[in-house]
Structure prediction request, 282 residues.
Amino acid sequence: MQTNRLILFLLLPLVLLYSCQNDNRKAAVKKGLAVPENKELSISYDTLLKAFKTLQKDPLLKNASIGYMIVDITSKDPVIVAEYHAKQPMIPASTLKIFVTGAALEFFGKQIIPEVTITNQMSVNWRSSKLLRRIGGKVYNSATTAAGAKAIMEFWTAKGVETDGMNFYDGNGLSRNNAISPKQLVDALYAMRTSPFFQTFYESLPLAGMTGTLRKAMKGSAAEGRIRAKTGTIASVKSFAGYVHTVTGRNLIFSLIVNDFDGRVKVVKKKLEGALICMAAI
Prediction:
């Protein structure tokens, strides 16, 4: 009997240690951290990383500049899942409208909702430019692109977005003089989550396979109905930025920009959408 008690006494610390380690592991997984012991989490991220690595090495994009950032916001603390040239200013095309429409909602409130919705859903360039100038008129009493751009920079800086290297040459994304990094897009999308108009902003973004500029994109895939994103397209530029609710219930924010590619836009678009589908499928 004494021998048995001695064995239990010696084993007790080991049992407690295992229990604590197991609890800590569960807590880490709950926070969205990539814990090696959790094979499901590791495999999910590996699949996503592989898809984007494959995109980087695609022969069609060998002369292109690629930048992306993906952040898991499922838990309280955001976790960077993947990034590549994320801080490099790039030509954003119409994903630039995220900065205009997000700011417009807070400057003008409910009255601007219809304008923001049609601007983001259908990527209407003249409407976005008008919104930019209207912001300039409200903040600086000067309804010009320059005044609007200055007001928007200050707005997003106050939201905690690092605007160094960002350039607003116009309010719609058509100019190749515009410059925004993938990280700045992700940071703006993350900051919008605390806006009183977040739900309106979120719903104004096209829904994959269902609405707006994404209504025909990724139909019948894991991305259908799971990705809300602003699209961008001009000559040799393709971009996406938005939110994802994945198959396994994770919530992601992402941006993906490709500049100076040689292939046809339609073909490049399909390549990028393939990576987005993998992202939605995790």
The first strand starts at residue 65 and ends at 72. Residues 38-281 form a domain with the Beta-lactamase fold (CATH 3.40.710.10). Strands lie at 65-72, 79-84, 227-234, 237-245, 251-259. The two ends are 53 Å apart (CA to CA).
